[in-house]
Structures are given as structure tokens and as C-alpha cells.
Amino acid sequence: QSALTQPLSASGSPGQSVTISCTGTSSDVGGYNYVSWYQQHPGKVPKLMIYEVSKRPSGVPDRFSGSKSGNTASLTVSGLQAEDEADYYCSSYAGSNNFVVFGGGTKLTVL
Amino acid sequence: EVQLLESGGDFVQPGGSLRLSCAASGFTFSSYAMSWVRQAPGKGLEWVSAISGSGGSTYYADSVKGRFTISRDNSKNTLNLQMSSLRAEDTAVYYCAKVVRYCIGGTCYVEYFDYWGQGTLVTVSS
Asked: Which residue, A68, B25, B89, B105, has most beta carbons within 10 Å?
């Protein structure tokens, strides 16, 4: 049950786009289209931003988008806004025995 | 409105035990798998354990297998986590989360966690 690999940090200026990667294996990210992304502001509860690789829950701005290629999933935030500054975690189904695995998290800074 | 309210977090010595509970409301509790996810201070999210809607299937992370037991009472809409042989590395905020799964042909795929509780803090220290 190894954690998915995310960069520790990412940054961009307001209005720019930033992409956060999430690398796993063929047993998790690469094997299933069940990758999700969560946003967590300091002291707050994680919030679902993307599910099934690229779907947005109701209420999530379309500035947030997801994709996947092979064993790597990506979250792109376009038109960065100050309120996007937060920690972002990816997650993937990891098989019936392992249930789910999270990434280590990426701190997104809006410069 | 879906609500998840955890309780039971406390300060406990290494080797001790603790029972966490999560009271659920606003959805048909027995129809959904539920999970515990923890977050150590200043660290990332770690999946801990999960249980199917009926309670018939349980899942554990290797880090807690054999020490933690997940259970649920569908008559009371309550999720529980019995923790024993606690270690310093179990110190974390423990979140209760509602699981969305896609089930087909006897296999259920975890899609995402759509609702999270506010969390309850467990501190293991001497």
C-alpha cells in the first residue's frame, strides 16, 4: 500500500494555470478510472473536487479539471484565484484488498 | 443534508485502547460503505479502514491491521472504530467519510469519498 506520488509544492500567479501530477502504478491509477482529487484548506475538512479522473461534482468551478495518462493522473487549475491556495490530494482505487490509496499531498501557492 | 459527526477522540498512552464513533444522518446509512481516514499533524491523508453497507465486508490498511476493528450499527446509523495497541504514530485527526462505490459482478470499485466529518483528534503519548 504505497502512497501515490505527488510533488510537495506547486505555485502560480493569479490567472495562470497550474498542473499537479499524481503518479501511481498499474495496480491503482493505471488500472482503474477511479481517481479523485480533494482540496483541503488549513484546518478544514477535505473537499471533493474531481472524481472518476475528470468529473466535477456540482458546485466545483470548471476551472478545475482532471486527466490521466498511464499511471499518472493530473489536476489542472486554470485561472488561478487566491482561494485556490490549499493542499490537494489525489486518491485512487487500489484493488479489492487495498481499497484506496492517497497521494502525499501538494501545497498549492498562489503567488 | 448529510451530516457526519465523529466522537471519542482522546489522549491515550501507548499500548492503550480507544473507540471512535461517527453518527450519520441525512442519507440511507445502510446503503453506503463507510470509511475512516486519518491525518497526522502536519501530514497528508491516510486511508485507515472501511466497511460495506451491510457490514459484511471490512478492509484495513496494513498499518492498522490486527489492531483496529471497524464496525457499524445500521439501526443507529453509527460507524465505529475500535483501536487497540495504540502507538505514537497513530496520533492523528480521524475523519469519518461516506464512500461512493460502483458495484458490478460482485466487485465494488471505490469511486470517491463525497462527505467527510469534522474529525476527532487521537493523541497517543506517554
From this structure: A68
Show Cβ contacts of residue B19 under 8 Å, excluding neighbours closer than 6 positions. Answer: B8, B80, B81, B82, B83
Check A102 against B47: CB less than 8 A apart.
yes
Q: Give B112→chain A minimum CA distance, Å.
A: 6
Beta strands in A31-99 (DSSP E): 35-40, 47-50, 64-69, 72-77, 86-93
* Segment 14-53 of chain A within 8 Å of chain B by CB: 32, 34, 36, 38, 40, 45-48, 51-52
